[in-house]
Specification:
The chain is an alpha/beta fold. Helices cover 47% and strands 15% of the residues. Helix 6 (138-148) links the parallel strand 5 and strand 6. The radius of gyration is 21 Å and the shape is globular.
Length: 364
């Protein structure tokens, strides 16, 4: 394979090291497998109408110039997220006959495609003209086939994968000492953007119940503060409830995230919707139990006792699930967890992706 281009509206930078880290990890995995990859991506998560228009406009124009200059060198393009990223791949196909694949992560279908009829129509076109569509979860595949008219044999369910050389169990006392955590203190961990749709307010409310049962427990919220207004709302919720033990940790490097996952007693992922929930898989690879909303890809990932599933937007049920894990009332299905981690290992993922690339390139 000569060269591929990866387009993404999320990619990490020195200032924002975890923003779209899953895309960068896959790019590095492909490069290690001998694929020549160029990346055209947005590495700034800051929002705002004017700033958003400027950064997207600059990225879009730069990517079009890139396609023009590299049209004869490219075997195919790979867009992460259908809209607006997939528009670049669609233009590359229509102008230069470069085939493309699209990876759907959830928000592009659950939120973006539902904004208005025009975006929904464009999303449908992008998916139907792709050489192949990758969805990070089974529910997403069903929606793509049923609601967007894509042939089932043109869709593959495949997560972004987990690097077991990075995410693995560690000696808890040692990592806690390095992070400044008490060895015996129960630690509840959240990793994700601090936005309403991640269920952060419900988690804060659930933690109030947890503190009544486990007074010395702590809750650590790790992630980007994309919405300053919502972060202030979270802080107000904490203050108004006079809650102690909650820490807003901000963003962390991947090395630090590995330590936090290994140090935690449980990972909470109370999202309203989730295409797959990669951080849940990373927690399982780290040997940390997961309590998550029964939505999207999480429903499949944590089935059969691999984790604890609770209804979304339900602080009381979330508290009960977290207490269930903290009290060790129901041990996790370790065999299922290990099987899942193996199925989503980097080795398995890259082999599937390279086969998709090979088949897609033949359509040119």
């Amino acid at each position: 394979m000569k060269k591929i281009a990866v387009f993404s509206n999320m990619y990490p930078s020195a200032e924002h090291p975890t923003y779209g880290i899953f895309v960068k990890n896959q790019v590095e995995l492909l490069r290690k497998s001998g694929v020549s990859v160029d990346v055209k991506a947005i590495d700034n998560p800051k929002s705002g109408k004017v700033q958003g228009l400027l950064k997207y406009g600059k990225w879009f124009a730069s990517s079009l110039f890139y396609l023009l200059g590299n049209r004869r060198k490219l075997e195919l393009t790979h867009s992460h997220y259908a809209f607006p990223t997939g528009v670049l791949s669609l233009l590359g196909k229509r102008m230069f006959k470069i085939p493309y694949i699209v990876t759907l992560h959830g928000g592009d279908i659950d939120k973006m495609a539902k904004k208005n009829a025009k975006i929904a129509s464009m999303t449908k076109t992008i998916l139907q003209e792709a050489a192949h569509v990758v969805t990070v979860g089974e529910r997403l595949k069903q929606e793509v086939v049923e609601n967007f008219g894509v042939a089932e044999n043109a869709v593959t369910v495949m997560s972004m994968g987990v690097d077991q050389t990075v995410f693995h169990p560690m000696e808890r006392a040692a990592v806690r000492a390095e992070l400044g955590l008490q060895e015996t203190q129960p630690v509840v961990l959240f990793i994700g953007n601090l936005i309403r749709e991640k269920g952060v307010l419900e988690l804060v409310q659930a933690f109030e119940s947890i503190r009544k049962t486990v007074p010395n427990s702590s809750l650590h919220l790790i992630g980007s503060h994309k919405s300053a207004g919502f972060v202030e709302e979270v802080k107000h919720e904490i203050t108004s409830r006079q809650l102690e033990g909650i820490h807003l940790e901000g963003t962390k490097t991947q090395k630090e995230l590995v330590q936090w996952l290994a140090a935690a007693d449980v990972l909470a992922l109370p999202s309203y919707h989730e295409g797959f929930g990669l951080v849940a898989l990373e927690a399982m690879a780290s040997g940390t139990p997961v309590v998550a909303s029964d939505v999207g890809g999480l429903t499949y990932l944590l089935a059969d006792g691999a984790g604890v599933l609770v209804p979304p937007k339900d602080a009381e049920a979330l508290a009960a699930g977290l207490l269930q894990v903290l009290s060790s009332e129901t041990p996790a299905n370790e065999e299922k967890r290990k099987k899942l981690v193996h199925e989503h290992s980097y080795e398995m993922i890259v082999n599937k992706l390279l086969k998709i690339y090979e088949d897609a390139a033949k359509t040119r």
